[in-house]
Amino acid sequence: MKKIFLTLLCLLLSGNVLAANPVVRIETNMGNIELELNKEKAPLSVDNFLRYAKEGFYNDTIFHRVIKSFMIQGGGFTTDYERKATHETIDNEAFNGLKNDRGTIAMARTNQPHSASSQFFINTVNNDFLNFKSKSMRGWGYTVFGKVTKGMAVVDKIDGLETGAGGVFSQDVPVTQVVINKVEIISE
Fold first, then answer.
1. DSSP for 15-30?
2. Cα(131)–Cα(55) distance, rounded to whole angstroms?
3. What is the three-class DSSP state of 131?
4. CA triplet 125, 109, 51: central angle to 5 degrees?
């Protein structure tokens, strides 16, 4: 036992112990969603998400786009459907080997591959067509940077909501507003 303790102590002091992945909790008015973020495979996306979380950016934003049996998207609009000002965009890391499978979180973006900023989505089914295929306009895909570890029932509840027009959007907005009260960093 003493030998194991000394070995662990040496590893800790030498810095050779792999750090645990960051864990965050998205607190919504429909329940909490806990995520483990993959800093090794998606360092830019994880750092970006944590930056916004630390700044309180996600507080009182909404899941503004919900497409049943596809994904739920949030992180960019207030409860009044106003777009929040964001930091610079980040490079696409979709070539990291992580897949847009059910329960994963990925960076939302425009048609431009390197345009992700604050918005994210949680896949509610396996969405293979969103995965990286090549470093071309049509092949970049969407960067997965973590996965739901608790609260998938909350994700499914949001996924099942009735949607329609809301604010500046003509469709896919939950009729019952889904508010992100805050994103809390549990461990970094």
1. T-SPPPPPEEEEEETT
2. 30
3. coil
4. 100
